Amino acid sequence: MLEILSFMFFTGGGLVMLFIAAFAVTWPQRIAALLGAIGYGILGFLAVESMSVDIRKRKSADKNMILLITLISFAFSYYALSSYLKNYFAPLLLVGPGLLVGLWIFFKGK
Description:
By secondary structure, the protein is mainly α.
């Protein structure tokens, strides 16, 4: 269930970031949105890959990599969305669930 939820939130966050990258006004917004979309795409791939692997066989290095990519993607996505929308609360609602699921995966595996 966690893997399915994480795949949905990560791919949804990636699609939102691609939308922002397409319609952003400045280049830093576009670059940050593209980096966030790439990060969420990688996280979505890792979520799908983890569905086929037994949970007990996962390594802690994978969990640390997921946490690192989650935090970096959230930071880029939050910057891109907050500068595009000129709002600081709406980005939390759009990409915050991906951060929560990434943290959930990290702490569940510890």
